[in-house]
Amino acid sequence: MAPRRRHGRFLITLGEESETDSEESDVSGSDGEDTSWVSWFCNLRGNEFFCEVDDEYIQDDFNLCGLSNQVPYYDYALDLILDVESSHGDMFTEEQNELVESAAEMLYGLIHVRYILTSKGMAAMLEKYKNYDFGRCPRVYCCGQPCLPVGQSDIPRSNIDGAYFGTTFPHLFLMTYGHLKPQKPTQSYVPRVFGFKMHKP
Question: Which residues contact 185 (CB under 8 A, 6 or more apart)?
């Protein structure tokens, strides 16, 4: 059976056409139209924080400067992201196709971190912020303040890096949308044991 790739998933070509059609409909959605790889990737469970990067932004070589050195299978990964049919896909083994898919996910993340620093990217992240897609701070005195994603490192795969959001994004976001900056809490936490304040030496 020859595997066929479709938005990062392998569909096994079956003898009966009806089974193949039903599998394809699971991937492409109920409306019968194919979704783009970017939409598919952003809608995967666990990828809710990602916003959809415009195709025009991805197609501009200036925005991808330096990424080819960081991502293996760069050209194939870029073709996968842009839904460009590649003639080389048939020559790859299943393992190589998985490597290309993994490279595409990494490449998209590195493009994403650049995109969210643009005005369009900021606007897309603002919508997610307003919808509390990033969650709310659980601290009592934060009063349900919406959270923002932040990375401790811009280098991918360095411990828990957050490289797909970067170290710059939350600061630039709150500078751009100053009215969203959280107010300082009127109360501060006082540590207590059995209701009594802790003595500070």
Answer: 141, 142, 143
Is 113 exposed, middle or buried, given 0-12, 13-18 or 19+ CB atoms closer than 10 A? buried
Q: If you write DSSP's letter for every residue of 14-78 in order, what string do you get?
A: PSSHHHHHHHHHHHH-TTSSPPPHHHHHHTSTT-TTPPPPPHHHHH-GGGGTTGGGTSTTHHHHH
| SS3 label, residue 4 | strand
Distant-in-sequence, close-in-space partners of 113: CB < 8 Å, separation ≥ 6 = 151, 154, 163, 164, 165, 166, 169
Contact 39, 48 (CB under 8 A): no
Residue ranges of the alpha helices (H) in 82-194? Answer: 94-115, 119-130, 169-176
Q: How far apart are CA 43 and CA 49, in angstroms?
A: 10
- Burial readout 78-108 (b: 16 or more C-beta within 10 A, e: otherwise): bbbbeeeeeeebeebeeeebebbbebbbbbb
Size (the chain), residues: 201
87-142: per-residue pLDDT in tens? 665 677 888 889 999 999 999 999 999 999 999 999 999 999 999 999 999 988 88
